[in-house]
Amino acid sequence: MRSKHDLLKNSFTGLQGNRRVFSRVLTGGALLILAACSTMPTGKQSAFVPPNAPSTVPGAQVPTMPPTGQDGKSPSVGRESFPMLRPADWERMPSWEKDRLAEAWPAWIQSCRALAEKPLWKQVCALAAAVDGTNEESVRDYFMGNFTPYEVVDPKSGREGLVTGYYEPVIRGDRVKSARAAYPIYGLPTDLVSVDLSTLYPELKFMRLRGRVVGNKLKPYYTREEIEKDGSGFRGIPIAWAEDPVDLFFLQIQGSGRVEFPGGEHLRIGYADQNGHPFRSVAKMLIEQGELKPSKASMQAIRQWGRDNPEKIAGLLNRNPSYVFFKELPDGLSGPLGALGVPLSGGRSVAVDPRHIPMGAPLFLATSWPLSDKPLNRLMLAQDTGGAIRGAVRADFFWGCGDAAGELAGRMKQKGRAWVLMPLEYSFGMNGPVKVSQQRTLDGKLRYDCLP
Predict the structure, then answer these.
(1) Which residues pair with 3 in a beta bridge?
(2) What is the pTM of this model?
(3) Contact of 190 with 422, CB cutoff 8 Å
């Protein structure tokens, strides 16, 4: 779904199939890599209200994946390597036994839509089809019988990192320009070129080059100020119009949202691409100018500053050169689309750094509620990402859609820890397949432990 704060998503139009243009782009674009090369991810109803706890069925049988192949050796699946994942015990995950895992099951099924054909995930996703997702005990047995927890540990910063929040905003606007709706929401420009550099250099995985072809060279794309300025040469095609420029700016930060038209109908839009320029934090700029105190720099405070200083809005926003383009999304989606390509689930989807966390994976997050010490320990699904979500222990909690979700998201800046649940056959780092022992705990449940 989203670009998150510096707004970079995994949605690109490559140049494959046109070798002449492709080679000219690379020749002319080599000098632009430092200026326009962006991290490429492997990529807001009311605030989340947990549904009623599902009923349980004692003694439910859950299929489990055998820890070894028929030859007694771990099958060679899952060549992915995530060195910052450290084998852990279920008992180390705070309140794991108290989380209502059945609430996360629909989000896990969404992940499996994207993972089902990937070797590492194929078997666990196939087994999920036989699980009663409304039954708490069945869901818990499924995860504990087919996955191993790995704590995310950054060698430099340790086990604890930053957890922020985001949501799907609903802004007022119209399909056509009017006196009230005068700010364009642009679709993807036809002259924006986006190159996945890993197609030529595998070591540049997650890196992308953006710009526009002028003659036979790739030039930086238009900045936010140039896009907003008449006569710059930018020729965008609006897909809708917004009533408020600050609302539009936050729509770009969130990366997706809904536009409410005068008749009450909604248009859902999602991230299409970004102009290749780096994101500059408006909050940081206001703090540096003495307009906001660091402890008060929330989305709500920035919005209020804009209302109090309408004459300064354009100048402030244009100091951030990054600009996001949108696309219309189909009706009937259960949520905005994340970088994984599946709808996000409020309160159960999270954005991560795909260099360190596999996209789609179950992730147990131990953090706290916004502006509070109240624990928020919950199984999430890594279904989104974004340019500001950088680092191993870094997460952006998706709260859902609307103002109530926005209130929570705008105030969330908490510390947290994370554990990724990987299929039993995951090969850890460069040390070969993980050796697994199978045993039952005192309460009779299956348990799998990593052996040295």
Answers:
(1) none
(2) 0.73
(3) no
